[in-house]
């Protein structure tokens, strides 16, 4: 089963009255295992950045100037996503923005049925408790110390760990065989080849954020396969 854990950053809250996407980060899971297949783009919103949004994600006009416009990456994004289930925290927000951008380009819009909302899962699983990404990290003991600002790629990686906790950690239906798991754990990966990674890490990430990213695939993979 292929899933895409996804997050966006935007210029504001109104997708149909001038606000635009400025960053998309998405990581691929196969059978609840992370691969090295990542989609990540900073996007020129073709408008100025409001200060309120800049305070959230730190993506300013100077940084975004010269980055590709959504029209240049929209089809590539759709090709990456395909028909995979989209795992998103507060899915209504991101899906609204993605479909607004896709509609402007006359590209295929994403059906809401394709999205799995981890915010909704958390609220149903823990009624009355805080369900923000930070709150769920605290609940599950997930290290989010590198999340000094919102960032679509790092937030997707954190969300992937939260998602696995929400659905009960290792899933027997999708686990690798014990032989394959043991081979990977011992360092023999000849029987398992991850998908190629198309995008390098963005240069604006701090050393701490880069270290968090570098440890993500190995750490999440080990957790999925071998945690009780």
Q: Please compute the radius of gyration using only Cα atoms.
A: 18 Å
The shape, in one word, is globular
Report the β-strand fraction as a percent range.
Answer: 15-25%
Mean pLDDT: 81
Question: Which regions have little confidence, pLDDT < 50, spanning 5+ residues?
Answer: 170-203, 220-228
Number of helical regions: 9
> Based on DSSP secondary structure assignment, what is the total number of beta strands?
5
Write down the CATH class. Alpha Beta
User: So, the CATH homologous superfamily?
Assistant: Ribonuclease H-like superfamily/Ribonuclease H
CATH architecture title: 2-Layer Sandwich
Sheet with the most strands, sense and barrel status? 5 strands, mixed
Query: What name does the CATH topology carry?
Result: Nucleotidyltransferase, domain 5
Question: What is the CA–CA distance across the termini?
Answer: 21 Å
Count of discrete domains: 1
Helix-and-strand structural type: alpha/beta
């Amino acid at each position: 089963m292929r899933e895409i854990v996804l997050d966006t950053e935007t210029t504001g809250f109104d997708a149909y009255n001038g606000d635009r996407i400025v960053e998309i980060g998405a990581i691929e899971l196969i059978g609840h295992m992370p691969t090295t297949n990542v989609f990540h783009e900073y996007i020129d919103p073709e408008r100025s950045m409001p200060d309120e949004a800049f305070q959230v994600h730190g993506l300013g006009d100077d940084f975004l100037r010269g980055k590709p416009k959504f029209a240049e990456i929209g089809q590539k994004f759709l090709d990456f996503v395909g028909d995979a289930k989209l795992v998103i925290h507060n899915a209504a927000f991101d899906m609204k923005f993605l479909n607004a951008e896709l509609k402007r380009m006359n590209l295929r819009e994403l059906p809401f049925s394709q999205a799995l909302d981890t915010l909704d899962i958390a609220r149903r699983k823990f009624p009355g408790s805080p369900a923000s990404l930070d709150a769920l990290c605290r609940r599950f003991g997930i290290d989010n110390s590198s999340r000094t600002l919102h960032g679509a790629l790092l937030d997707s990686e954190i969300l992937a760990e939260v998602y696995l906790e929400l659905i009960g950690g290792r899933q027997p239906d999708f686990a690798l065989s014990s032989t394959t798991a043991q081979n990977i754990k011992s360092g023999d990966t000849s029987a398992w080849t991850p998908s190629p990674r198309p995008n390098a890490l963005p240069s604006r990430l701090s050393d701490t954020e880069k270290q968090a990213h570098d440890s993500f695939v190995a750490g999440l993979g080990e957790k999925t396969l071998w945690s009780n």
